[in-house]
Write a structure and sequence with these properties.
alpha/beta, about 30% helix, globular
């Protein structure tokens, strides 16, 4: 996690909670490296699932989808199904964990949020090319306007997800879905937006 030298961050940016979405880590890293020392005003987790990123897998090293492992009222022990290609069948199973917050990565994330108490979290994913902001926040609208990505809901059940957890804890969460594109194009389009978020150019608002 990258934290500002002074002051409490209002926004936490989370990349790489799914290890097969390495582009999220790349664009956040690119943005962080462009910020002068002392210029960081908000926080960033470069990769919430380091084992999955190293392995190139959606889940962590023991096959748990960390974005279904949060302690929420809708958490389910049923396997999580997903597809590895856009047009392929949804036939790959991952575990939501033996119980809510069973994974060390999940517990570390929750501990950090409890310590930081950010007003909002921006969670990066790929590659649905949209901004999912169920609460209709000013932050979500700002990101959509800056990126040109449409504001729309992902539209399928996500038991045990970070979004569900945030909603139950009255925390603004914006899901920032990158488009399917080359890393060069993604950095060119999204790094400037992330730099503004990380340097405090955009205030969370109400």
């Amino acid at each position: 996690v990258w934290l500002p030298e002074d002051g409490a961050p209002e926004i936490l940016i989370l990349a790489g909670i799914h290890g097969d979405e390495p582009e999220t880590t790349v664009v956040v890293s690119d943005a962080l490296r462009a910020i002068d020392v002392g210029g960081l005003k908000n926080a960033a987790i470069l990769c919430g699932n380091p084992d999955g990123l190293l392995r190139g897998t959606r889940g962590n090293a023991v096959g748990v989808d960390l974005n279904r492992n949060l302690p929420t009222s809708n958490w389910s022990p049923e396997p999580v199904l997903y597809k590895s290609t856009r047009k392929g069948p949804q036939d790959i199973e991952l575990s939501p964990g033996a119980e809510p917050a069973s994974e060390p990565e999940t517990r570390a994330l929750l501990s950090l949020i409890e310590e930081m108490k950010p007003r909002a979290v921006v969670s990066l994913h790929g590659a649905l090319a949209c901004i999912d902001d169920e609460g209709g926040s000013k932050l979500g609208q700002w990101i959509a306007e800056k990126t040109g990505l449409p504001l729309e809901e992902v539209g399928y059940p996500t038991p045990g997800s970070f979004g569900s957890w945030a909603r139950e804890h009255d925390l603004t969460l914006v899901t920032y879905e990158l488009e399917a594109a080359s890393l060069y194009d993604l950095k060119e389009r999204h790094s400037p937006v992330l730099i503004e978020l990380l340097t405090g150019a955009m205030e969370v608002g109400d």
